[in-house]
Design brief:
By secondary structure, the chain is an alpha+beta fold. About 15% of the residues lie in helices and about 30% in strands. The protein is built from 4 helices and 13 strands. The protein has helices at about 15-25, 80, 185-190, 250-260, and strands at about 40-45, 50-55, 60-70, 75, 90-95, 105-115, 125-130, 155-160, 175-185, 200-205, 220-225, 225-235, 245-250. A 6-stranded antiparallel beta barrel has the order 8-9-10-13-12-11. A 6-stranded antiparallel barrel has the order 2-3-4-7-6-5. The protein is globular. The structure holds 4-(aminomethyl)benzoic acid. 4-(aminomethyl)benzoic acid binds next to β12. Belongs to the peptidase S1 family. GO terms for molecular function: peptidase activity. One of its GO terms (biological process) is proteolysis.
Length: about 260
């Protein structure tokens, strides 16, 4: 079994004891690992990507990302919602910086978690939040069930988030983005063995590593051609050579998401 970093970077992580306990369970970075930029790309803004939402606790501490797909519906990862309730989470739109106070804060009136979800490595890592307050931001399109060509190996995908910029590092105050190539299912199976479930997941990253999502990016978007095609889910560490990031394969869940968006 791999030491998979797939905990959400909860505000609880700030609690030293909890962090220490969690760290012990997570993948140990190789000795003297160089800083591994997630999203090794560049800073960006919610003006450029208005559908990228912060998922926060009630004190507006970000712990996951999400994607606005209708004014009142946000797609995120199921693993981000474990232990959460409609009163414990908020969705914040239009806020580029973690320490900002601008944008729109909404409460959540309903949390739908895929009914078969157990753990990220089993798949079904998808959730849909219903917002109490409509977001005044442009929404993202998401793939339909037949759009499977977006996962052709080598296709350029875009990742976004406020997650840590190295394994067990600190979060980025500013939203970041990078592009990574989609990895073939066979190659991802070689990396992850039976934890990689091809009809539920898709991998993206360079074989040499260096660019990836990381803790706190979970739930956020993987875009192909500007369309939501994946949800940041899990991986062995962050940006490690031979271990691409693993994303929820949204085509598989597209109809279920649509049912939630229309409900
Ligand atoms: C996380 O814990 C996480 N390198 C997200 C993505 C990846 C690893 C961990 C992929 O939120």
């Amino acid at each position: 079994m791999f030491g998979l970093t797939r905990v959400k970077k909860a505000a609880a992580l700030a609690a030293a004891a909890a962090a220490a306990a969690a760290t012990a369970l997570l993948s140990a970075p190789s000795a003297a690992a160089a800083p591994q930029p997630i999203v090794g790309g560049t800073t960006t803004t919610t003006t450029a990507y208005p559908f990228v939402m912060q998922i926060t606790d009630a004190s507006q501490n970000q712990f996951c990302g999400g994607t606005l797909v209708s004014p009142t519906k946000v797609v995120t990862a199921a693993h981000c919602m474990v232990g959460e309730t409609t009163s414990s989470v908020r969705v914040v739109g239009g806020r580029t910086y973690l320490n900002g106070t601008n944008g729109t804060v909404s409460r959540v009136s309903r949390i739908w978690i895929h009914p078969s979800y157990t753990t990220a490595t089993r798949g079904e890592d998808v959730a849909v939040l219903t917002l109490s307050t409509a977001m005044p931001y442009a929404t993202a399109k998401y793939v339909s069930s037949t759009d499977t060509s977006v996962y052709a190996a080598g296709t350029t995908a875009r990742i976004l988030g406020w997650g840590t910029t190295s394994s067990n590092g600190s979060s980025s105050n500013q939203l970041r983005t990078a592009t990574v190539p989609i990895v073939s299912d066979s190659s991802c199976r070689t990396s992850y063995g039976s934890d990689f479930v091809a009809n539920e997941m898709v991998c993206a990253g360079y074989s040499s590593g260096g660019v990836d999502t990381c803790q706190g990016d979970s739930g956020g978007p993987l875009l192909v051609g500007g369309v939501l095609a994946g949800i940041t889910s899990w991986g062995e560490g962050c940006a490690q050579a031979g271990y691409p990031g693993v994303y929820t394969r949204l085509t598989t869940f597209s109809s279920l998401v649509t049912a939630q968006v229309n409900s």
